[in-house]
Give the backbone structure.
Amino acid sequence: MCSVHDTVEFEKRGIPSTTIITEAFKKAADFQFRGKGMQGHPYVQLPHPVSNLQPGEIRELTLRFVDEVATHLKG
Amino acid sequence: MNERVDEFEFFLEKDWSDGFPVVTPTEERIARMLTGTKRNHDEVIGPIPPGMEIATVRNVAVHALMAGCRLEYLPVVLGATELMLRDEFNVNGVQGTMHGVAPMMIVNGPYAAEIGLHGGNGCLGPGFRANATIGRAIRLILMNLGAGIPGVSSMTIFGMPSRFTYCLTENVEDGPWESLSASKGYLPDDNVITMAMVESPRFCFDDVSDEPDRLLIGIADTMTSMGSWNMHARSDMVVAMGPQHAGICANAGWSRADVHRRLCELAGRKVRDLKGGGNWRRERALALPIDVDPDDDDCFVPTIKNPEDLQLIVAGGWGPCTAVCHGWSGGSRAVHGKYQV
Amino acid sequence: MVNGLGFVDPTAGGGKEIILLAPRPSNLSGKVVGLLDNTKEQADIILQTIGDALCEQYGVERVIIRRKEHYSKPATDEMIDEMAKQVDVAIAGLGG
Protein backbone atom coordinates (compact mmCIF):
# COMPACT_ATOMS: atom_id res chain seq x y z
CA MET A 1 0.00 0.00 0.00
CA CYS A 2 1.25 3.38 -0.93
CA SER A 3 1.15 5.19 2.38
CA VAL A 4 3.93 2.83 3.48
CA HIS A 5 5.91 3.80 0.41
CA ASP A 6 5.38 7.45 1.21
CA THR A 7 6.58 7.04 4.79
CA VAL A 8 9.70 5.24 3.63
CA GLU A 9 10.42 8.00 1.14
CA PHE A 10 10.16 10.62 3.88
CA GLU A 11 12.52 8.61 6.10
CA LYS A 12 15.02 8.36 3.22
CA ARG A 13 14.97 12.14 3.08
CA GLY A 14 15.65 12.46 6.79
CA ILE A 15 12.05 13.27 7.76
CA PRO A 16 10.66 11.15 10.62
CA SER A 17 7.43 9.62 9.43
CA THR A 18 4.72 7.21 10.44
CA THR A 19 1.77 5.64 8.65
CA ILE A 20 -1.87 5.40 9.68
CA ILE A 21 -3.51 2.17 8.58
CA THR A 22 -6.59 0.23 9.49
CA GLU A 23 -5.89 -3.06 11.25
CA ALA A 24 -7.08 -5.18 8.32
CA PHE A 25 -3.98 -4.10 6.43
CA LYS A 26 -1.48 -4.93 9.18
CA LYS A 27 0.08 -7.86 7.35
CA ALA A 28 0.36 -5.86 4.15
CA ALA A 29 2.01 -2.99 6.03
CA ASP A 30 4.49 -5.34 7.77
CA PHE A 31 5.34 -6.93 4.45
CA GLN A 32 5.80 -3.65 2.67
CA PHE A 33 8.00 -2.11 5.35
CA ARG A 34 10.14 -5.26 5.36
CA GLY A 35 10.35 -5.27 1.57
CA LYS A 36 11.44 -1.66 1.50
CA GLY A 37 14.21 -2.19 4.03
CA MET A 38 12.44 -0.79 7.10
CA GLN A 39 11.34 -3.93 8.86
CA GLY A 40 9.47 -3.20 12.05
CA HIS A 41 8.92 0.48 11.24
CA PRO A 42 6.26 1.77 13.62
CA TYR A 43 2.83 2.61 12.33
CA VAL A 44 -0.59 3.25 13.84
CA GLN A 45 -3.44 0.79 13.46
CA LEU A 46 -6.99 2.03 13.63
CA PRO A 47 -9.76 -0.52 14.05
CA HIS A 48 -11.25 -1.67 10.74
CA PRO A 49 -13.50 -0.56 9.16
CA VAL A 50 -13.67 3.21 9.33
CA SER A 51 -15.54 3.84 6.09
CA ASN A 52 -18.93 3.43 7.74
CA LEU A 53 -18.27 5.83 10.64
CA GLN A 54 -19.71 9.33 10.82
CA PRO A 55 -17.27 12.27 11.00
CA GLY A 56 -17.79 12.77 14.74
CA GLU A 57 -17.13 9.10 15.41
CA ILE A 58 -13.98 9.17 13.29
CA ARG A 59 -12.62 12.17 15.18
CA GLU A 60 -13.35 10.58 18.54
CA LEU A 61 -11.65 7.34 17.47
CA THR A 62 -8.64 9.12 16.00
CA LEU A 63 -8.02 11.21 19.11
CA ARG A 64 -7.33 8.00 21.03
CA PHE A 65 -4.27 7.42 18.82
CA VAL A 66 -2.66 10.86 18.84
CA ASP A 67 -0.19 10.02 21.60
CA GLU A 68 0.91 6.95 19.69
CA VAL A 69 1.47 9.04 16.56
CA ALA A 70 3.57 11.49 18.55
CA THR A 71 5.64 8.64 20.02
CA HIS A 72 6.57 7.43 16.55
CA LEU A 73 7.65 10.88 15.43
CA LYS A 74 9.82 12.01 18.31
CA GLY A 75 12.76 10.59 20.20
CA MET B 1 16.07 -35.10 -10.57
CA ASN B 2 17.46 -35.18 -7.02
CA GLU B 3 15.84 -38.17 -5.41
CA ARG B 4 15.86 -36.59 -2.00
CA VAL B 5 13.66 -33.71 -3.04
CA ASP B 6 10.29 -34.17 -4.63
CA GLU B 7 10.34 -31.37 -7.22
CA PHE B 8 6.58 -31.04 -7.25
CA GLU B 9 6.30 -30.80 -3.46
CA PHE B 10 9.20 -28.31 -3.46
CA PHE B 11 7.28 -25.82 -5.55
CA LEU B 12 3.83 -26.62 -4.20
CA GLU B 13 5.06 -25.60 -0.74
CA LYS B 14 6.24 -22.17 -1.88
CA ASP B 15 4.38 -19.12 -0.49
CA TRP B 16 3.99 -17.95 -4.06
CA SER B 17 2.55 -21.20 -5.39
CA ASP B 18 -0.87 -20.83 -7.02
CA GLY B 19 -1.80 -24.21 -5.63
CA PHE B 20 -1.06 -26.18 -8.79
CA PRO B 21 2.15 -28.00 -9.69
CA VAL B 22 4.60 -26.21 -11.95
CA VAL B 23 6.82 -27.43 -14.75
CA THR B 24 10.17 -27.84 -12.99
CA PRO B 25 12.57 -25.16 -14.23
CA THR B 26 15.80 -26.89 -15.24
CA GLU B 27 18.55 -24.99 -17.05
CA GLU B 28 17.87 -27.06 -20.13
CA ARG B 29 14.16 -26.20 -20.17
CA ILE B 30 14.87 -22.54 -19.48
CA ALA B 31 17.35 -22.40 -22.38
CA ARG B 32 14.78 -23.93 -24.68
CA MET B 33 12.07 -21.50 -23.52
CA LEU B 34 14.40 -18.56 -24.16
CA THR B 35 14.64 -19.53 -27.83
CA GLY B 36 11.08 -18.22 -28.03
CA THR B 37 12.33 -14.64 -27.98
CA LYS B 38 14.92 -12.63 -29.88
CA ARG B 39 15.32 -10.27 -26.93
CA ASN B 40 18.45 -10.14 -24.81
CA HIS B 41 18.00 -12.51 -21.89
CA ASP B 42 19.31 -10.00 -19.36
CA GLU B 43 17.07 -7.19 -20.58
CA VAL B 44 15.31 -5.55 -17.66
CA ILE B 45 11.55 -5.22 -17.95
CA GLY B 46 10.91 -3.66 -14.57
CA PRO B 47 10.23 -4.22 -10.88
CA ILE B 48 6.97 -6.00 -10.06
CA PRO B 49 5.25 -4.28 -7.16
CA PRO B 50 5.00 -4.47 -4.22
CA GLY B 51 7.77 -7.07 -3.84
CA MET B 52 9.79 -5.07 -6.39
CA GLU B 53 11.82 -8.01 -7.67
CA ILE B 54 13.09 -7.14 -11.12
CA ALA B 55 11.47 -8.91 -14.05
CA THR B 56 13.99 -9.69 -16.76
CA VAL B 57 13.49 -11.53 -20.00
CA ARG B 58 15.13 -14.55 -18.40
CA ASN B 59 13.08 -14.73 -15.25
CA VAL B 60 9.86 -14.02 -17.14
CA ALA B 61 10.82 -17.02 -19.30
CA VAL B 62 11.29 -19.09 -16.14
CA HIS B 63 7.77 -18.19 -14.96
CA ALA B 64 6.33 -18.90 -18.41
CA LEU B 65 8.04 -22.28 -18.31
CA MET B 66 6.73 -23.06 -14.85
CA ALA B 67 3.22 -22.08 -15.94
CA GLY B 68 3.37 -24.65 -18.72
CA CYS B 69 3.86 -22.32 -21.68
CA ARG B 70 5.29 -23.40 -24.99
CA LEU B 71 8.27 -21.34 -26.11
CA GLU B 72 6.08 -19.74 -28.78
CA TYR B 73 4.00 -18.12 -26.04
CA LEU B 74 6.94 -16.25 -24.54
CA PRO B 75 6.55 -13.07 -26.64
CA VAL B 76 3.00 -12.65 -25.36
CA VAL B 77 4.04 -13.16 -21.73
CA LEU B 78 6.87 -10.64 -22.14
CA GLY B 79 4.56 -8.14 -23.80
CA ALA B 80 1.96 -8.51 -21.09
CA THR B 81 4.53 -8.13 -18.30
CA GLU B 82 5.72 -4.87 -19.82
CA LEU B 83 2.24 -3.59 -20.43
CA MET B 84 0.99 -4.25 -16.92
CA LEU B 85 3.76 -2.17 -15.42
CA ARG B 86 2.42 1.03 -16.95
CA ASP B 87 1.58 3.50 -14.18
CA GLU B 88 -2.02 3.94 -15.20
CA PHE B 89 -2.74 0.21 -14.91
CA ASN B 90 -1.87 0.33 -11.20
CA VAL B 91 -0.65 -3.20 -10.55
CA ASN B 92 0.78 -1.94 -7.28
CA GLY B 93 -2.69 -1.18 -6.01
CA VAL B 94 -4.34 -4.35 -7.23
CA GLN B 95 -1.69 -6.49 -5.57
CA GLY B 96 -2.83 -5.32 -2.14
CA THR B 97 -6.52 -4.53 -2.64
CA MET B 98 -9.38 -6.25 -0.83
CA HIS B 99 -11.02 -6.69 -4.23
CA GLY B 100 -10.45 -9.78 -6.38
CA VAL B 101 -9.96 -8.19 -9.80
CA ALA B 102 -7.30 -9.59 -12.08
CA PRO B 103 -5.56 -8.33 -15.21
CA MET B 104 -7.63 -9.72 -18.09
CA MET B 105 -5.57 -10.12 -21.26
CA ILE B 106 -7.29 -9.73 -24.62
CA VAL B 107 -4.81 -10.64 -27.35
CA ASN B 108 -5.45 -9.53 -30.94
CA GLY B 109 -3.53 -9.89 -34.16
CA PRO B 110 -2.25 -12.77 -36.30
CA TYR B 111 0.21 -14.20 -33.75
CA ALA B 112 -2.62 -15.05 -31.37
CA ALA B 113 -4.10 -17.50 -33.86
CA GLU B 114 -0.64 -18.81 -34.75
CA ILE B 115 0.03 -19.94 -31.20
CA GLY B 116 -3.44 -21.35 -30.67
CA LEU B 117 -4.95 -18.73 -28.40
CA HIS B 118 -8.64 -19.49 -28.25
CA GLY B 119 -11.59 -17.12 -28.49
CA GLY B 120 -14.41 -19.53 -29.22
CA ASN B 121 -16.44 -21.88 -27.12
CA GLY B 122 -15.08 -22.37 -23.63
CA CYS B 123 -12.44 -19.66 -24.08
CA LEU B 124 -12.64 -18.47 -20.48
CA GLY B 125 -12.55 -21.93 -19.01
CA PRO B 126 -10.17 -24.89 -18.93
CA GLY B 127 -9.05 -26.76 -22.02
CA PHE B 128 -6.83 -24.41 -23.98
CA ARG B 129 -3.11 -24.46 -23.27
CA ALA B 130 -2.22 -21.01 -24.59
CA ASN B 131 -5.08 -19.30 -22.74
CA ALA B 132 -4.41 -21.21 -19.54
CA THR B 133 -0.64 -20.96 -19.37
CA ILE B 134 -0.07 -17.41 -20.64
CA GLY B 135 -2.51 -16.07 -18.04
CA ARG B 136 -0.98 -18.31 -15.40
CA ALA B 137 2.54 -17.08 -16.17
CA ILE B 138 1.41 -13.53 -15.42
CA ARG B 139 -0.14 -14.66 -12.13
CA LEU B 140 3.02 -16.52 -11.08
CA ILE B 141 5.05 -13.39 -11.83
CA LEU B 142 2.66 -11.30 -9.74
CA MET B 143 2.85 -13.77 -6.86
CA ASN B 144 6.56 -14.54 -6.87
CA LEU B 145 8.35 -11.46 -8.19
CA GLY B 146 5.57 -9.12 -7.07
CA ALA B 147 4.80 -10.89 -3.78
CA GLY B 148 1.06 -10.51 -4.36
CA ILE B 149 0.32 -13.27 -1.88
CA PRO B 150 -2.99 -13.45 0.02
CA GLY B 151 -2.51 -12.96 3.71
CA VAL B 152 0.95 -11.50 3.20
CA SER B 153 0.71 -8.39 1.09
CA SER B 154 -2.60 -9.08 -0.61
CA MET B 155 -5.73 -8.33 1.39
CA THR B 156 -8.02 -9.80 -1.25
CA ILE B 157 -11.19 -10.97 0.46
CA PHE B 158 -12.01 -13.83 -1.90
CA GLY B 159 -9.50 -13.66 -4.69
CA MET B 160 -11.36 -14.83 -7.80
CA PRO B 161 -11.09 -17.80 -10.18
CA SER B 162 -9.74 -15.38 -12.77
CA ARG B 163 -6.71 -14.89 -10.56
CA PHE B 164 -5.50 -18.32 -11.66
CA THR B 165 -5.46 -17.25 -15.29
CA TYR B 166 -7.30 -14.71 -17.43
CA CYS B 167 -6.32 -14.64 -21.08
CA LEU B 168 -8.18 -15.00 -24.36
CA THR B 169 -8.42 -13.77 -27.90
CA GLU B 170 -11.56 -12.68 -29.72
CA ASN B 171 -13.70 -14.99 -31.82
CA VAL B 172 -12.34 -13.80 -35.15
CA GLU B 173 -14.08 -16.50 -37.18
CA ASP B 174 -17.62 -15.82 -35.98
CA GLY B 175 -17.39 -12.17 -34.93
CA PRO B 176 -19.15 -9.73 -37.26
CA TRP B 177 -17.01 -6.66 -36.58
CA GLU B 178 -13.43 -5.42 -36.52
CA SER B 179 -11.31 -6.52 -33.58
CA LEU B 180 -10.92 -4.62 -30.32
CA SER B 181 -7.43 -3.59 -31.40
CA ALA B 182 -8.69 -2.35 -34.77
CA SER B 183 -11.32 -0.28 -32.97
CA LYS B 184 -8.44 1.33 -31.08
CA GLY B 185 -6.68 2.21 -34.34
CA TYR B 186 -4.20 -0.64 -34.69
CA LEU B 187 -3.56 -2.27 -38.07
CA PRO B 188 -4.81 -5.77 -38.88
CA ASP B 189 -1.27 -7.19 -38.78
CA ASP B 190 -0.38 -5.60 -35.45
CA ASN B 191 -0.02 -8.01 -32.55
CA VAL B 192 -1.70 -6.25 -29.67
CA ILE B 193 -2.57 -6.95 -26.07
CA THR B 194 -5.26 -5.06 -24.17
CA MET B 195 -5.34 -5.52 -20.41
CA ALA B 196 -8.17 -4.47 -18.10
CA MET B 197 -8.37 -4.93 -14.33
CA VAL B 198 -11.69 -6.71 -13.97
CA GLU B 199 -13.60 -9.38 -12.10
CA SER B 200 -14.49 -12.84 -13.34
CA PRO B 201 -17.46 -12.55 -15.68
CA ARG B 202 -21.13 -12.70 -14.88
CA PHE B 203 -23.44 -13.75 -17.67
CA CYS B 204 -26.40 -12.21 -19.43
CA PHE B 205 -28.43 -14.99 -20.95
CA ASP B 206 -31.01 -13.86 -23.48
CA ASP B 207 -32.54 -16.35 -25.86
CA VAL B 208 -35.62 -14.17 -26.37
CA SER B 209 -34.42 -10.95 -27.99
CA ASP B 210 -34.14 -10.96 -31.76
CA GLU B 211 -33.34 -7.29 -32.21
CA PRO B 212 -30.66 -5.06 -30.65
CA ASP B 213 -32.80 -2.75 -28.51
CA ARG B 214 -34.15 -5.37 -26.15
CA LEU B 215 -30.93 -7.38 -26.24
CA LEU B 216 -28.79 -4.43 -25.16
CA ILE B 217 -31.22 -3.49 -22.39
CA GLY B 218 -30.59 -6.90 -20.83
CA ILE B 219 -26.84 -6.70 -21.27
CA ALA B 220 -26.84 -3.18 -19.84
CA ASP B 221 -28.71 -4.48 -16.82
CA THR B 222 -25.91 -6.97 -16.21
CA MET B 223 -23.51 -4.03 -16.28
CA THR B 224 -24.98 -2.61 -13.09
CA SER B 225 -25.57 -3.68 -9.50
CA MET B 226 -25.65 -1.99 -6.11
CA GLY B 227 -22.51 -3.83 -5.10
CA SER B 228 -20.53 -3.15 -8.26
CA TRP B 229 -17.71 -0.66 -7.97
CA ASN B 230 -18.51 0.45 -11.51
CA MET B 231 -21.49 2.30 -10.07
CA HIS B 232 -19.51 4.11 -7.38
CA ALA B 233 -16.19 4.91 -9.05
CA ARG B 234 -14.77 5.44 -12.50
CA SER B 235 -13.85 1.90 -13.53
CA ASP B 236 -13.16 -0.24 -16.54
CA MET B 237 -15.49 -2.96 -17.74
CA VAL B 238 -15.21 -5.73 -20.32
CA VAL B 239 -18.29 -6.86 -22.23
CA ALA B 240 -17.67 -10.01 -24.25
CA MET B 241 -20.63 -10.52 -26.54
CA GLY B 242 -21.07 -14.06 -27.73
CA PRO B 243 -21.15 -14.20 -31.54
CA GLN B 244 -24.87 -15.00 -31.51
CA HIS B 245 -25.68 -11.82 -29.61
CA ALA B 246 -23.22 -9.80 -31.69
CA GLY B 247 -24.82 -11.21 -34.81
CA ILE B 248 -28.27 -10.00 -33.76
CA CYS B 249 -26.88 -6.47 -33.65
CA ALA B 250 -24.76 -6.72 -36.78
CA ASN B 251 -27.62 -8.22 -38.81
CA ALA B 252 -29.74 -5.23 -37.84
CA GLY B 253 -27.08 -2.96 -39.27
CA TRP B 254 -25.41 -1.99 -36.00
CA SER B 255 -21.66 -1.49 -35.96
CA ARG B 256 -19.38 -2.23 -33.01
CA ALA B 257 -19.32 1.51 -32.32
CA ASP B 258 -23.13 1.64 -32.34
CA VAL B 259 -23.37 -1.15 -29.78
CA HIS B 260 -20.63 0.42 -27.67
CA ARG B 261 -22.39 3.77 -27.65
CA ARG B 262 -25.78 2.26 -26.81
CA LEU B 263 -24.41 0.19 -23.93
CA CYS B 264 -22.77 3.31 -22.48
CA GLU B 265 -26.12 5.11 -22.73
CA LEU B 266 -28.24 2.31 -21.27
CA ALA B 267 -26.09 0.90 -18.48
CA GLY B 268 -26.67 2.55 -15.13
CA ARG B 269 -29.17 3.10 -12.38
CA LYS B 270 -31.10 5.96 -10.90
CA VAL B 271 -30.03 7.23 -7.51
CA ARG B 272 -33.20 5.81 -5.91
CA ASP B 273 -32.17 2.31 -7.11
CA LEU B 274 -28.61 2.62 -5.86
CA LYS B 275 -28.84 4.22 -2.47
CA GLY B 276 -30.82 1.53 -0.67
CA GLY B 277 -27.94 -0.96 -0.48
CA GLY B 278 -24.44 -1.84 -1.55
CA ASN B 279 -21.64 0.67 -1.78
CA TRP B 280 -23.70 3.82 -2.19
CA ARG B 281 -22.42 6.85 -0.33
CA ARG B 282 -23.27 10.46 -1.09
CA GLU B 283 -19.60 11.41 -0.94
CA ARG B 284 -18.70 8.76 -3.49
CA ALA B 285 -21.35 10.01 -5.90
CA LEU B 286 -20.09 13.57 -5.52
CA ALA B 287 -16.51 12.42 -6.14
CA LEU B 288 -17.39 10.87 -9.51
CA PRO B 289 -15.83 12.57 -12.54
CA ILE B 290 -19.30 13.23 -13.95
CA ASP B 291 -22.21 15.32 -12.70
CA VAL B 292 -24.36 13.33 -10.31
CA ASP B 293 -26.89 14.85 -7.91
CA PRO B 294 -27.09 12.40 -5.01
CA ASP B 295 -30.16 14.19 -3.67
CA ASP B 296 -32.15 13.67 -6.84
CA ASP B 297 -33.69 10.20 -6.83
CA ASP B 298 -34.29 10.41 -10.57
CA CYS B 299 -30.70 11.26 -11.38
CA PHE B 300 -29.23 8.57 -13.62
CA VAL B 301 -25.78 7.30 -12.69
CA PRO B 302 -24.18 5.70 -15.75
CA THR B 303 -22.01 2.63 -15.28
CA ILE B 304 -19.49 3.80 -17.83
CA LYS B 305 -18.13 7.22 -16.87
CA ASN B 306 -15.87 7.50 -19.91
CA PRO B 307 -16.45 5.56 -23.18
CA GLU B 308 -12.78 4.52 -23.15
CA ASP B 309 -13.49 2.43 -20.08
CA LEU B 310 -15.73 -0.07 -21.87
CA GLN B 311 -13.76 -2.81 -23.65
CA LEU B 312 -16.27 -4.44 -25.99
CA ILE B 313 -15.18 -7.72 -27.58
CA VAL B 314 -16.75 -10.68 -29.37
CA ALA B 315 -15.77 -13.99 -27.83
CA GLY B 316 -17.17 -17.30 -26.79
CA GLY B 317 -19.01 -20.05 -28.57
CA TRP B 318 -22.36 -20.09 -30.22
CA GLY B 319 -25.24 -19.51 -27.85
CA PRO B 320 -27.45 -16.77 -26.39
CA CYS B 321 -24.96 -15.31 -23.90
CA THR B 322 -22.83 -12.27 -23.24
CA ALA B 323 -20.19 -12.10 -20.50
CA VAL B 324 -19.80 -8.93 -18.45
CA CYS B 325 -16.72 -8.34 -16.32
CA HIS B 326 -17.06 -5.64 -13.71
CA GLY B 327 -14.19 -3.45 -12.57
CA TRP B 328 -12.39 -2.01 -9.58
CA SER B 329 -12.35 1.20 -7.60
CA GLY B 330 -8.58 1.42 -7.48
CA GLY B 331 -8.01 3.92 -10.25
CA SER B 332 -6.75 1.45 -12.84
CA ARG B 333 -7.08 2.37 -16.50
CA ALA B 334 -6.99 -0.33 -19.17
CA VAL B 335 -3.79 -0.43 -21.17
CA HIS B 336 -3.00 -1.64 -24.66
CA GLY B 337 0.05 -1.91 -26.87
CA LYS B 338 1.85 -3.89 -29.52
CA TYR B 339 4.14 -6.69 -28.47
CA GLN B 340 7.26 -7.94 -30.19
CA VAL B 341 7.15 -11.44 -31.69
CA MET C 1 19.25 -19.90 -8.08
CA VAL C 2 20.84 -23.19 -9.21
CA ASN C 3 21.60 -25.44 -6.29
CA GLY C 4 22.14 -29.07 -5.44
CA LEU C 5 18.51 -29.74 -6.20
CA GLY C 6 19.12 -30.26 -9.90
CA PHE C 7 16.71 -27.53 -10.89
CA VAL C 8 16.43 -23.76 -10.65
CA ASP C 9 14.56 -22.14 -7.75
CA PRO C 10 13.35 -18.72 -8.90
CA THR C 11 11.89 -17.76 -5.53
CA ALA C 12 12.28 -14.03 -5.08
CA GLY C 13 13.43 -12.18 -2.02
CA GLY C 14 16.40 -11.19 0.04
CA GLY C 15 19.15 -8.68 -0.37
CA LYS C 16 17.13 -5.57 0.32
CA GLU C 17 18.95 -2.45 1.36
CA ILE C 18 18.32 -1.46 4.95
CA ILE C 19 17.03 2.07 5.42
CA LEU C 20 17.84 3.67 8.74
CA LEU C 21 15.29 5.64 10.72
CA ALA C 22 15.60 9.39 10.31
CA PRO C 23 16.77 11.02 13.55
CA ARG C 24 13.84 12.01 15.74
CA PRO C 25 13.44 15.41 17.39
CA SER C 26 13.24 15.31 21.17
CA ASN C 27 9.80 16.93 21.05
CA LEU C 28 7.31 18.30 18.54
CA SER C 29 7.06 21.82 19.98
CA GLY C 30 7.49 24.46 17.28
CA LYS C 31 7.70 21.84 14.56
CA VAL C 32 5.94 21.71 11.20
CA VAL C 33 3.96 18.54 10.54
CA GLY C 34 3.25 17.29 7.05
CA LEU C 35 0.08 15.30 6.44
CA LEU C 36 0.00 13.25 3.25
CA ASP C 37 -3.57 12.33 2.40
CA ASN C 38 -3.90 9.45 -0.06
CA THR C 39 -7.61 10.31 -0.66
CA LYS C 40 -8.83 7.02 0.82
CA GLU C 41 -12.17 7.62 2.46
CA GLN C 42 -11.94 9.19 5.91
CA ALA C 43 -8.20 9.88 5.46
CA ASP C 44 -8.82 13.62 5.40
CA ILE C 45 -10.76 13.66 8.68
CA ILE C 46 -8.28 11.33 10.39
CA LEU C 47 -5.24 13.32 9.33
CA GLN C 48 -6.81 16.69 10.10
CA THR C 49 -7.83 15.44 13.55
CA ILE C 50 -4.28 14.26 14.23
CA GLY C 51 -2.84 17.53 12.94
CA ASP C 52 -5.13 19.64 15.11
CA ALA C 53 -4.48 17.51 18.18
CA LEU C 54 -0.69 17.66 17.70
CA CYS C 55 -0.95 21.45 17.59
CA GLU C 56 -3.08 21.59 20.74
CA GLN C 57 -1.37 18.92 22.78
CA TYR C 58 2.22 18.86 21.54
CA GLY C 59 2.87 22.47 20.55
CA VAL C 60 3.24 21.79 16.85
CA GLU C 61 3.50 25.16 15.13
CA ARG C 62 1.64 24.35 11.96
CA VAL C 63 0.42 21.64 9.66
CA ILE C 64 0.86 21.27 5.88
CA ILE C 65 -1.56 19.01 4.05
CA ARG C 66 -1.08 17.49 0.62
CA ARG C 67 -3.48 15.18 -1.22
CA LYS C 68 -2.34 12.46 -3.60
CA GLU C 69 -3.91 11.67 -6.91
CA HIS C 70 -5.30 8.30 -5.85
CA TYR C 71 -5.09 6.14 -2.77
CA SER C 72 -3.55 3.14 -4.45
CA LYS C 73 -0.69 5.01 -6.07
CA PRO C 74 2.47 6.24 -4.35
CA ALA C 75 3.09 9.95 -4.02
CA THR C 76 5.28 11.40 -6.73
CA ASP C 77 8.88 12.19 -5.91
CA GLU C 78 8.07 15.81 -6.58
CA MET C 79 5.36 15.88 -3.93
CA ILE C 80 7.53 14.16 -1.34
CA ASP C 81 10.48 16.42 -2.15
CA GLU C 82 8.33 19.52 -1.86
CA MET C 83 6.90 18.44 1.47
CA ALA C 84 10.28 17.34 2.80
CA LYS C 85 11.60 20.85 2.32
CA GLN C 86 8.86 22.34 4.45
CA VAL C 87 8.16 19.87 7.25
CA ASP C 88 9.99 18.44 10.23
CA VAL C 89 7.92 15.26 10.53
CA ALA C 90 5.31 13.60 8.33
CA ILE C 91 2.29 11.36 8.64
CA ALA C 92 0.92 9.34 5.71
CA GLY C 93 -2.55 7.83 5.63
CA LEU C 94 -4.81 6.02 5.17
CA GLY C 95 -3.56 2.52 4.38
CA GLY C 96 -6.39 0.08 4.22
